Amino acid sequence: MVKWLLLVILTVVEAKLNDQHDVCPEQIFLSNKSSAQKWIPDKMNAIIENNNSSKSNTISQTLKFSHLKSVNDITDDLYYAMPPLFQLDDYDACLGRNGTFCLGSFYLSAPNDNQLYRLLQWVSSNTRYRFNHTQLHRGLCLSSSCIDVSNTPMSPKQQFQQCVNNITRSQYGLEASMLRLDYCKDAQTPPSVPRDVADDIFLALFIALLAANVLGTMYDIFRDKTNKGNQLLLSWSLISNYKNFTHIYPNEDTIVSRFNSIHGIKSFILLLIMMAHSAIAIHIAYLYNTKAPESMRRNSAFMILMNGSQGVQTYIVLSSFIFVHHFLLLGGQYTKRSPVLIFFVLVLRRIVRSAIYKFIIKIAFADGTMWIPIMEKEAQVCRMKWWSHALFINNFYRPDDRCLIQTWFLAVDMQLYALSIVLAIALTRWTKVVIKIIPLLFLVTILCNFVVAYTFNLKASLYLTNPEYLKKLHYGMPSFKWMYAAPWASLPASLLGIATAYLYYEMRNNKIDLHKYKWFKIVYRASVPGFFGWIYAGYFLPDEPSRLVSAFYAAFDRPITCIIFCIVLLGFIYRIDNIYWRAMSWSGWQLLGRMSLCVLMVHWTFNLMQIALQTNVNEVSVLKYLGHWLVTVLMTYLTSIPLHLLVEMPVQKFLRASLGI
Which residue from 477, 466, 478 is spatially nearest to 20, judged by alpha carbons? Predict the structure, then answer.
């Protein structure tokens, strides 16, 4: 308990110290100005630096902001008086001229009477909407932006530190000390993730998969169609897999077709997830106009991005719902077998389904490139933690080190799936007892989550979207590790999925038609806008809620979201209206929905790749957000089609045929 409390205290202190960032248009002018000064003789340069220093002191002394009631009232002249948060020289041009390029972060300091530094601290105190302006992020070419130190005997790291400090001191009267060095490199610097045996093994596996697809397809073409054929070889047939992939179930009144809308739900939620991850990726970038994203965050329209992450819980509900419903339909087959055997067979089937998961972990980061802080860093984590992903415990083992940030969901899904198997087996044997236990478990889980959130001051997902938290990808945040990505926080969603599956199974067996209940129609029609309304309700929460309110919201936010979604799900299955369920039952959703696992695994790579390829600071606007999202969606689906046809589907079929599961 003491260790946990100390961890929470240290995390809060760190968050307060490290909290926010910014960049402004005058950044380019200042950068060019400082570079131009390097060509002036030393004496004249010293005079200019002294003038700049006295000018910065004068500006610092004349800054007036005590009359402002809120950080949100800050004027443009005050905002752009602050040092630009990001500066990035042209990376390609630097290396092309055999220069040394350094990237790193710095923290600022100044005497207590420095008005500019007090302004930085005041703006940074609004952690909900602002970057930490007491920290600067610089990527400089030493041979062009730091001429005065580039020829000294100091190391590149020391030259970088001295250069940034000189510029900051001369232009703003502030001291800059290095917080973190991401790298210093030139054109001859080798990649930080060199090729090794793991890469050779992956390459061999990739060639083997292609060969298996060619062999299976050729066998399917030339085999005797009057015979059933070798199922092991046919599992690799591209022709057969393509037919399965493109098969469309019509919207008829059958058990299967009633679930057509689930494909639409999954695909729609994935599109929103990719949109949210585009916003996160942009926060990792070096930004040109940081005032834009800070201002956007105060707009209620962006609440879907800031508070929409609980939409992921719908996947947990669907996972438990589909499995338990299928289990109940085939209950007669399972009751004849040992419960222990059933458990391990079903777990093995889910692992087989997740074969693409292991493949993507390797293919996504098989080799590092020039974008060291993003791609190569994640590649190193993937190499270190691959085994924890294979065992689905990556959300517990070194949780701050993340290989593909979205994979916490697959670990939680597998952990809750194992629990769903136990409850499903019990449900078919001791139905009356389990039906009473599930609601009790649901309430107890919410209560436990409340106690945990209150005891350790853990926050709901809404309060994990601060600019600095997103920029660090929630590194070192207990709320992300032990609430957002923890299985107990998603357990209510799983229990609701199980309960909804059993409820639907019983209603169908007893021929209960929800069309006949007017009250349900009213509740259902209100549930779809209510789902998004609950997400937008986060806009009205205080920026700094009390510990009690924060814990209450953290415990009840997800369960309420999932209760509303379960009503929506039943309404779709019973086809209460001709608007919502028809939109989600479009035949094209079936194709996209079948690739959900590939899409979930691939999209983050394209989110990061667009940022990692930047050679200068990025401008932020609504159109930029939209463009980043659309490129991610397009590239993700184009990549997911061959991955689904050549890897996910044939591997599943092959393992099931060979293992008899």
Answer: 466
What residues contact residue 105 under an 8 Å CB cut-off, 6+ apart?
135, 136, 137, 138, 178, 179, 180, 182
* CA separation for the pair 260, 583 (Å, rounded): 11
Strand 135-141 versus strand 86-88 pairing type: parallel
Q: Yes or no: say if 193 and 362 are a contact pair by the CB < 8 Å rule.
A: no
- From CA 81, how far away is CA 59, in angstroms rounded? 8
Taking only the tens place, the pLDDT of each residue in 388-427 is 888 899 999 999 998 888 889 999 999 999 999 999 888 8
Residue with token string 């093995």: 348
What are the structure tokens assigned to 93, written together? 């041009």
In b/e form, how buried is each residue of 109-131, taking b as 16+ CB within 10 angstroms?
ebeeebbbbbbbebbbebbbbbb
Q: Are 283 and 21 in contact (CB under 8 A)?
A: no
Give the SS3 label for residue 557.
Answer: helix
Q: At what angle do helices 408-429 and 431-456 cross, to 10 degrees?
A: 150
Residues 605, 608, 614, 616, Cα dihedral to 10°: 180
**How many Å separate Cα 328 from the centre of its chain?**
34
Rg (CA), the chain: 28
Domain boundaries, the chain: 75-185, 248-659
**Gap between the Cα atoms of 304 and 532, Å rounded:** 8
63: tokens are: 């800054």
Q: How far apart are CA 583 and CA 572, in angstroms?
A: 10
The pLDDT tens digits for 209-256 are 999 999 999 999 998 888 888 889 999 999 999 999 999 888 776 777
Listed residue (26, 34, 37) closest to 82, CA to CA: 26
Q: Which residues of the chain have pLDDT under 70?
A: 1-64, 66-67, 191-196, 198, 253, 332-336, 352-371, 660-661
C-alpha 574/C-alpha 568 separation (Å) is 10
Most distant pair of Cα atoms in the chain: their distance: 94
DSSP per position, 260-289: HHHHHHHHHHHHHHHHHHHHHHHHHSPBS-
CA dist., res. 228 & res. 224, Å (int) = 8
CA 194, CA 300: separation in Å to the nearest integer? 46
User: Residue 601's Cα: distance from chain center in Å?
Assistant: 11
177 and 135 Cβ atoms separated by less than 8 Å:
no
Cα dihedral 206, 208, 210, 215, rounded to 10, equals -170
* Cα torsion 200, 206, 208, 214: sign: negative
Instruction: Return the closest-CA partner of residue 452 out of 504, 489, 501.
Output: 489
Q: Hey, what long-range contacts does 205-208 have (CB within 8 A, 24 or more apart)?
A: 205/359, 206/363
For residue 104, what pLDDT is reported? 94
Q: Which two tokens stand for residue 449?
A: 């989550």
DSSP 137: E
Structure tokens at 551: 């814990």
| C-alpha distances out from residue 591 to 148, 368, 506, 585, Å | 60, 32, 30, 11
Task: Collapse the DSSP code of 400 into the 3-class scheme (helix H, G, I; strand E, B; otherwise coil) and give the result.
Answer: coil
Q: Is the pTM of this model over 0.70?
A: yes
Residue 58: what pLDDT?
45
Burial state string for 441-454 with b = 16 or more CB within 10 A and e = fewer than 16: bbeebbeebbebbb
